[in-house]
Amino acid sequence: MTRVGADLRLGIRANLAQFSLLVAVNALVGGVLGQERTVLPLLAEQTFHLTGYTFLLTYVLAFGATKAATNYFAGTWSDRFGRKPVLLAGWLVAIPIPVMLIWAPSWGWVVAANVLLGINQGLTWSTTVIMKIDLAGPARRGLAMGLNEAAGYTALAVTALATGYLAAHYGLRPAPFLLGASYVVLALGLSGFVVRETREHARLEATRHTARGDGRHDHLHAELTNRQVFGHTSLHEPALSAASQAGMVNNLNDGLAWGLFPILFAAAGLSVSHIGILAAAYPAVWGLGQLVTGPLSDHWGRKHLITAGMLTQAAALALVALSDTFALWLVAAVFLGAGTAMVYPTLLATIGDVAHPAWRARAVGVYRLWRDGGFAVGAVLAGIVADLWGLRAAVWVVAALTAVSGVIVAVRMYETHPKPDRSKHITASEESAS
After folding, report:
1. For the chain, how far is it from start to end, CA to CA, in angstroms?
2. Of 19, 49, 243, 292, which sees the most CB atoms within 10 A?
3. What are phi and psi of 4, to 5 degrees?
4. For the whole prediction, is pTM greater than 0.85?
């Protein structure tokens, strides 16, 4: 086992207490987002009487644009100031969000709360991703990301289901948002007093970093400027740029599901409780599925799992557009969640495979900038198409874009996960610690 100092080690097992704590913290991150999933679209229609889909989706646009930008800064600040201060700052920003949603006298207050939510999610979720990659080391990156994303999205799903129940029995406000307030208080305590800094683990891995045998990453040396990291992750490096566009399209269809699916279901006459089940089923399968797909990508590789996941999502969205019953929509939600589970942790593991430890946090930030920019693009695109041609047309457009994205991954991305014959670069002791 490689050490720096007396107790610094790489591997999930070697850092199990801190790794598990960060899994719990990311569950709370997902829960804060989940408090809005079922309730906010209904609040827009029933309380604020919004009729235009584009205007209704302003809250998704505000959230997505803010989160995307904050992701970038989370990566650079994590390298500059450390991971823990950025995580704690993200939770401090979250304090007013439930209060604003409970007392909002106008839709503008909801949009403002979602600006803060975007900052919160960008700082906290990005940082927990970076910290888990730091701790896990290279051997079990897919498993680490599967656990991280599973925790966040399973908690999102459970919270969406719980808030749907609370809204059905106690009204849209304040009961559902009190649950979110409790998450913020708990997360602040854990992040402030129990979570430990992980930046030195990345520095340890950098001292042991081994280049690919095929020479593909020889130009991606340790000393890259922020501009170079942005360029490689966005455009120039085939795997990084393919991952960035796939992440953006993935969250584009998630923004559609968040903003318009509850309205589509309500228009078909479904009850609030049934809408809550559908709103929860998709992220539940997505969340729990990552417990399988994350480690699976460590064994099978990244590229084909991502391609299959994008095409599965496209087929599920087509089924949503074709259906008009609760049963068929539930099937579509399950397949949409399964496709997203194939993609989500695997894309993050791809970034970790390619990016050098010295600039990996910044690459994660750039990737997540593009990925969560999909919320904003999806909100605008889906809103405009829905206003012009209806809800189902918006779903068809997003389904087509998702299929095209899967084809781009198939053509442009190469396999980034180390092949079995390269396992000699991972010491037996580090393997056992993971």
Report:
1. 11
2. 243
3. -125, 120
4. no
